[in-house]
Amino acid sequence: MTKPLFEVEDLHVSSAEGVGILHGVNLVVLPGEVHALMGPNGSGKSTLASILLGSPEYVVTKGSIRFKGDDITDWSADVRGKAGLFLAFQYPLEVAGVSVINFLRQALSARKGIDLSVLELRLAIMDWMDRLGMDPSFADRYLNEGFSGGEKKRNEILQMAILEPEMAVLDETDSGLDIDALRIVADGIAEVRSDRPDLGIVAITHYRRLLQYLRPDVVHILMEGRIVESGGAELAERLEVGGFDEFRSSGSGDRGAPA
To answer: In the chain, how many domains are there?
Structure first.
């Protein structure tokens, strides 16, 4: 039996002020699986993404997070990143004066303890930029400065390719993208997965349109800090027809770790 890559068990999370946000989330991701997490604004999606990567803004009051069998609930964000966790932000930050290639060089050094020369890293980046359909000049631009929404998201896919994480959390990667940019980003994710078939992914989104490209193995509906239903792609189709109200009134309870 395949061992879980990533497990969230009975996770309760509060803000620093003590306000409860997540109320018993369960999630099990096997190697190579794609899980989609859907929910309306205020359901706790971005809080879950942040706490999975160790954000100090929130407090775990109950439950655990495990990665490759290790309890990482108390690990800091940098330790989780070095261990092989990756978060693609909904709103990537601009970093003036730091080029994409220098950022990746520092990040890769921290992730793998490999001190690559700029030339060695440039060769790797050029290969991936070609595979992702990105202009080579992109490597020398300052990180996210003046980038369009699509460029920011493609840059994060580039980071995911270069850093070679084992588990990626994509926080509303489709936010602000038109249909063409969304297709490009989704194709980039597929390209990375073809190179790393055991990569586990949790994709957090409002919309079904991203799922048409990612084709998740499991879809979860998060409402008011709980996963109220989990299943296959048919859940997203039901959501398209009935909206979140159907799940808000279902009272189905947390089924975040289906058999």
So the answer is: 1
Q: What pTM did the predictor assign?
A: 0.87
Give the Cβ contact number of residue 148 at 10 Å. 11
Residues paired with residue 29 on neighbouring β-strands, in sequence order: 6
For the residues 145-166, what does the mean pLDDT come to?
86
Q: What is the pLDDT of residue 198?
A: 96
**pLDDT of residue 60 exceeding 70:** yes
| pLDDT for residue 1 | 67
Q: Which pair of tokens denotes residue 127? A: 């290969």
Query: Which residues 6+ apart lie within 8 Å of 151 measured at CB?
Result: 138
pLDDT band at 91 (very low <50, low <70, confident <90, very high): low
Residue 172 in any domain: the answer is: yes
Give a yes or no: residue 119 inside a domain: no
State which amino acid sits at residue 62: K
Q: Cβ distance 214 to 203 under 8 Å? A: yes
Q: Which own/partner pairs from 214-218 qualify as long-range (CB within 8 Å, at least 24 positions apart)?
A: 214/34, 214/36, 214/186, 214/189, 214/190, 215/34, 216/34, 216/35, 216/36, 217/33, 217/34, 217/35, 218/33, 218/34, 218/35, 218/36, 218/258
What's the first-to-final CA gap in the chain, in angstroms? 13
CATH number where 232 lies = 3.40.50.300
Asked if residue 255 is part of any domain, the answer here is no
Domain that holds residue 218: 6-91+148-157+166-248
Query: E-assigned strands of 114-238?
Result: 142-143, 167-171, 200-205, 218-223, 226-231
Is 34 part of any domain? Answer: yes
Q: Look at 112-121, 148-157, 218-227 and tell me which has the smallest mean pLDDT.
A: 112-121
